[in-house]
Hints:
Layout: E1 5-9, H1 18-33, E2 37-40, H2 46-57, E3 62-67, H3 68-71, E4 82-86, H4 89-98, E5 102-105, H5 110-125, E6 132-135, H6 142-153, H7 159-162, E7 165-168, H8 171-179, E8 181-182, E9 188-189
Parallel strand pairs: 1-2, 1-5, 2-3, 3-4, 5-6, 6-7
Antiparallel strand pairs: 8-9
Helix pairs in contact: 1-2
Amino acid sequence: MQLRSLCVYCGSSPGRLPAYVEAADAFGRLLATRGIRLVYGGGRTGLMGAVADGALAAGGEVLGIIPRGLVEKEVGHTGLTERQVVDSMHERKQRMADASDAFVALPGGIGTLEELIEVYTWSQLGFQDKPCGVLDVQGFYAPLEHFLDHMVDHRFLKQAHRATLFVEDDAARLLARLAAYEPSAGGKWMDGAER
């Protein structure tokens, strides 16, 4: 599939390691150089600001979607290509999903995790057919990978669905895996494997 627009979930804080901010900035720049529009939560602090600023600095298009109640709290970014202020978190998440061809989580807190797990669940239930991925900066998401494997071991998650969350520590490789997903094949990967 062609990735024209990518939704990124990430923290509104910078996190403990400088590598998190560096990776967010680099990911934004990579999206811009590939001509992929960044869709994100509209904040200008932490990793949210870094990914948006990276994309903008490289000439990319950035759509930020933020609820009214968070414009001040998350310090809404005012320099975006487009900013939409919405009434609720539900509207924010739905608009972000509708505007995107795929989803990627960078490091973040419980909000980031909740957004990632929600779209991952939507794919399991057949409510959406867009690939989901994680950019695993400095092993941040290793505990999540172990927990998902634990769910498989205890038969709460099928291995086939476990395999549909792409986890990579290299941004270019992650984008390549997302692009290899072919939604028009009825939920099959381009190599013919069932998802």
